[in-house]
Amino acid sequence: MSVRSRAALMRTVDVDRVKAAIAAAERATSGEVRVSVARFFWGGVRRAAERAFDRLGMARTKDRNGILFFIVPARKRFVVLGDEGIHARVGQEFWEAVAAMLSERFRKGEFTEGLVEAIAEAGRLLAAHFPYDPAADVNELPDDVDFGGN
């Protein structure tokens, strides 16, 4: 699958379902979740994910507990990046569990389903380290799916 146009890229992911998954996950944790979907590009996927992490302001959360799902449907590749607050509290098993969910679905081209499941799992796992406090928690980052590119 080669997804080069923004319009075609937006058709690969059910934005409403992904936004609902983000909102549901963030009701269980103070962690912030973002999704960025990139069209085909040359270069390393990890480096592009790091640029998106910076561009989206992921490191500006109070507890440094943002997590970015960066996907490249044209390559069936992804990177999940967490900020330093998350890294300080979760082990490798956390990242492996989330990546396993995405990998299985992405191999089948099921990008929306993979994201919805992985976001729910990330929210569940983050809640143990960053519980939601309705009196203090604010939504620090938008829940919109980013199609800003790489």
How are helices and strands ordered from N to C? HHEHEEHHHE
Tell me the total number of β-strands.
4
Number of helices: 6
Q: State the name of the first-level CATH class.
A: Alpha Beta
Strand content: 5-15%
Named CATH topology: Diaminopimelate Epimerase, Chain A, domain 1
Shape: globular
Seen as an oligomer or otherwise, the chain set is single chain
**Major sheet:** 4 strands, mixed
**Unreliable parts:** none
Proportion in helices: 40-55%
- Main sheet: which strands, in order across? 3-2-1-4
Total domains: 1
Give the rounded overall mean pLDDT: 87
Euclidean distance between termini CA atoms: 18 Å
CATH architecture annotation: Roll
Structural class: alpha/beta
From the alpha carbons, calculate the radius of gyration and give it in angstroms: 14 Å
Description:
The chain is globular. The longest helix has 19 residues, at 111-129. β1 (32-37), α3 and β2 (66-72) form a beta-alpha-beta unit. The chain is built from six helices and four strands; from the N terminus they run ααβαββαααβ. The chain has one domain (6-146): Diaminopimelate Epimerase, Chain A, domain 1, CATH 3.10.310. The protein has helices spanning 6-11, 15-26, 45-55, 84-87, 92-107, 111-129, and strands spanning 32-37, 66-72, 77-82, 145-146. Helix content is 45%, strand content 14%. By secondary structure, it is an alpha/beta fold. Strands 3-2-1-4 form a four-stranded mixed beta sheet, sandwiched between helices. The chain starts with 5 loop residues before the first helix and ends with a strand.
